[in-house]
Here is the input.
Amino acid sequence: MEQNTAKSASPKERKVKGKVIIDIQKCKGCELCKTACKEDALVLSDTINIKGYRYIIANNDLCSGCVNCALVCPDAVITVWRTSPKKKPVDITPKSIKEDIRSIISSPVYSDLTAMDYI
Here is the structure.
């Protein structure tokens, strides 16, 4: 017997994720953003806004934060926030700072100071 190993359609695991915010009251539903979205994270709603247009809804679980939708929006009603992976904290201890200061001061040029002309 063969086992069915079909995978469910789950969002890809990414290091960088996006969050799309759409001003639905100003959206005219032109679908340019939907066409530009390479992740298929945008869909047209079934309801209408106050202006009588069907507006775009974002599925932020699928969003990669590429900002293509915001770039093509003719009314600039889309804002994209991108979350980046957490960086490792830089370890700054007094010991490492002292070593850096010593390396900067370690090579002074005292022999040239006697030959300098003062005004």
